[in-house]
């Protein structure tokens, strides 16, 4: 049965600094959070970090003597997708060595996750592979604490030039220094954008703009690269690109390529509906279980899944932005009663 469709609202971040414009966006945001739990977030240059809109119009990210230049996140995104694809093109035995399950960083293999075990076929996990990247905290840093997911990333250490993949004959090249710098530049920009979104959420909930700031001094911010295979999903047989689930955290900002597949469970009448891929630079945002708890159920943490048509591979990049590890999440006073 084909999925239906609904209108997904679009919120604009950075459109204007005027109070009236901010209030207008916050009203749209509140309606989206309470009605569907999903929305598109269009990011304009004024919402980007100061480094990306400096007078030089170019930001330089330093990483192990490698300088990564980018104008802003809208210009950085295409490169992040290219670098993601280059990583997943690496041989499986190489990727499998780049994993740290203790810190929840690095590579996770194809079908390693099963997000909806009740409906997924036994022995068949999500037909996707991934790579986790967080804040890079050295073991010598006072913030280092694996129990709180605060520690170093694990990085590819391989250089490949020339050659071609066996599957689609694309040129294959991989520079681990450039790859690392590109990913950390994107991680940095997404933290800034996510923080501004959290402030807008506070306004939407009739709270002071800085209400949540204290809980995001040391946020848990995880970037994940995802590659979905072109195996066709068969829901009747329990084969899913990504099983149905809700996110446990506060907010997720998803960048995706132009391949459809993301669906949300809207209600009992409409069931599963498609979320069309937005233009590059516009994110698909959903609120998680933590936000639903914080608002005493007023905000929706919506079930979502990915269904592959089998036509081609799909690439997406979710960014999970959650409060500091020790944050106590209890219903807000204005959400009780």
Provide keyphrases for this structure.
337 residues; alpha+beta; Jelly Rolls; five-stranded mixed β-sheet; 5 helices
Stated plainly, the CATH topology is called: Jelly Rolls
Overall shape: globular
Radius of gyration: 20 Å
State the CATH class. Answer: Mainly Beta
Pfam families: 2OG-FeII_Oxy, DIOX_N
Domain Fe2OG dioxygenase: 219-323
Keywords: Iron, Metal-binding, Oxidoreductase
Protein name: Fe2OG dioxygenase domain-containing protein
Describe what this molecule looks like in 3D.
Keywords: Iron, Metal-binding, Oxidoreductase. Residues 219-323 form the Fe2OG dioxygenase domain. GO terms for molecular function: metal ion binding; oxidoreductase activity. It comes from Chaetoceros debilis. With 337 residues, this protein is an alpha+beta fold. It has one domain (4-335): Jelly Rolls, CATH 2.60.120.330. 22% of the residues lie in helices and 25% in strands. A hairpin with a 2-residue loop joins strand 4 and strand 5. Helix 1 packs across helix 4 and helix 2 (73-88) crosses helix 4 (176-204). The termini are far apart. Residues 52-59 and 162-171 have low confidence and may be disordered.
Task: Summarize this structure briefly.
The chain is of the alpha+beta class and 337 residues long.
Element layout with pairings:
Blueprint: E1 4-5, E2 10-13, H1 19-35, E3 38-43, E4 59-63, E5 66-70, H2 73-88, H3 92-96, E6 99-100, E7 105-108, E8 128-133, E9 159-160, E10 174-175, H4 176-204, E11 220-228, E12 242-245, E13 251-256, E14 262-267, E15 271-274, E16 282-287, H5 289-294, E17 304-306, E18 314-322
Parallel strand pairs: 1-15, 2-3
Antiparallel strand pairs: 3-16, 4-5, 6-7, 7-8, 8-11, 9-10, 11-18, 12-17, 13-16, 13-18, 14-15, 14-17
């Amino acid at each position: 049965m084909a999925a239906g469709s609904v209108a997904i609202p679009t919120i604009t971040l950075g459109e204007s600094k005027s109070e009236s414009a901010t209030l207008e966006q916050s009203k749209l945001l509140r309606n989206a959070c309470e009605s569907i739990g999903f929305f598109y977030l269009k990011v304009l240059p004024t919402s980007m970090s100061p480094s990306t809109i400096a007078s030089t119009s170019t930001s330089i990210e330093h990483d192990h003597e490698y300088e990564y230049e980018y104008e802003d996140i809208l210009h950085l995104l295409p490169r992040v997708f290219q670098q993601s694809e280059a990583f997943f093109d690496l041989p499986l035995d190489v990727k499998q060595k780049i994993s740290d399950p203790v810190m929840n960083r690095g590579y996770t293999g194809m079908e390693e996750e099963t997000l909806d075990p009740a409906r997924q076929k036994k022995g068949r996990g999500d037909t996707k592979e991934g790579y986790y990247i967080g804040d890079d905290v050295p073991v010598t840093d006072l913030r280092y604490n694996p129990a709180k997911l605060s520690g170093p990333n694990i990085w590819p250490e391989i250089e490949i030039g020339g050659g071609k993949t066996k599957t689609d004959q694309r040129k294959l090249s991989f520079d681990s220094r450039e790859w690392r710098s590109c990913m950390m530049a994107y991680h940095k920009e997404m933290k800034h954008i996510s923080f501004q979104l959290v402030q807008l959420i506070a306004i939407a909930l009739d709270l002071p703009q800085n209400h949540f700031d204290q809980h995001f001094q040391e946020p848990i911010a995880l970037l994940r690269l995802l590659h979905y295979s072109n195996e066709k999903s068969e829901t009747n047989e329990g084969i899913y690109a990504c099983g149905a689930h809700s996110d446990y955290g506060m907010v997720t900002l998803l960048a995706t390529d132009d391949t459809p597949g993301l669906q949300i469970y809207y209600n009992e009448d409409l069931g599963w509906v498609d979320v069309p891929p937005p233009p590059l630079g516009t994110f698909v945002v959903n609120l998680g279980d933590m936000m639903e708890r914080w608002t005493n159920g007023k905000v929706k943490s919506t079930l979502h899944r990915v269904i592959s048509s089998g036509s081609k591979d799909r690439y997406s990049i979710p960014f999970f932005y959650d409060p500091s590890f020790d944050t106590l999440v209890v219903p807000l006073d204005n959400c009780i009663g």
